[in-house]
C-alpha cells in the first residue's frame, strides 16, 4: 500500500517471512526527510491499521544507519553487498554435466518454495507472493530452475535474475541442501550472467547474510567483489 507523507510517497509492503512485519520504502527517495516524530507516527498508524506489528527499514549508507539508530530502531540483520563486473567467469571445471537449466513453469512452484524454505531461515523465506514480487521487482527478469538431465520434472534449485537501467541483480538463488556443492548454483549464475550480457548489462549485484559463509565463498569465486558498505535491516514497533 502506498500513501503520502509530507509530500513523499511512502509504501508499506508485506515481509514474506514474517506476516506481522512490513517493509517501509519510498521509490521517489526522501524517506529520511519524513522521519521526524509526527510523520513517523503517521507511518506507524497506517501500518497498524493494516495489521502489522513491526516496521522494517533498509539502510544502505552510514547516514541512514545513524538516523535509524538515533530513532532507537533495533538492528534486525546485516547483509553483505557484492558486485560483479566480469560476467564471463571461467568456471568450466565447476559445472556438472548432469544438470540442465530450464525455464521455470507454474507447476514448479511447490518445489521451488520447498527448496527456498530449506535454504533460508524463516525470516528470509519467500512465500508465493514474495516469489512473484521478486520476479516483478525489475523491468526484466529471468526465472529459471535447475534439474537433472534425466528428469526434467525434478527441481533441484532455482534462480531469479533481474535487469534494469543497465544494471543486473541476482534477486534469489537456492539449491536443495542435498545437491549443493555440485556445481548447480554455479550453472544457474552462469546462465543468468549470459542472459544479462545479452541486455548489455555492465554489472550485477547480490546481497547475502553476513553469516552465510558458503554463499559468500560462492560469489567471490565467481568474481563478485565485496563492497565496503553493506545493507542493514532495522526494525521498530508500529505501536
Quick take:
The protein is an alpha+beta fold. It is built from 6 helices and 12 strands.
What does this structure look like?
The chain has 239 residues and is an alpha+beta fold. The protein has 2 domains: 2-78 and 231-237, no CATH class; 87-222, Gcn5-related N-acetyltransferase (GNAT) (Aminopeptidase, 3-Layer(aba) Sandwich). The protein has 6 helices and 12 strands. Strands 1, 2, 3, 4, 5, 6, 7, 8, 9, 10, 11 and 12 form a 12-stranded mixed sheet that branches. β7 and β8 (151-164) form a beta hairpin. The model has no long low-confidence stretch (mean pLDDT 93).
- CA-CA gap between termini: 19 Å
- Overall helicity: 25-40%
In the CATH scheme, what's the topology name of the largest domain?
A: Aminopeptidase
Number of self-contained structural domains? 2
Annotation keywords:
239 residues, alpha+beta, Aminopeptidase, 2 domains, 12-stranded mixed sheet, 6 helices
Helix-strand layout with pairing:
Blueprint: E1 2-5, E2 8-15, E3 18-25, H1 37-49, E4 54-59, H2 62-70, E5 74-84, E6 99-103, H3 109-119, H4 128-136, E7 140-148, E8 151-164, E9 167-175, H5 184-198, E10 203-209, H6 213-221, E11 225-226, E12 231-237
Parallel strand pairs: 3-4, 9-10
Antiparallel strand pairs: 1-2, 2-3, 4-12, 5-10, 5-11, 5-12, 6-7, 7-8, 8-9
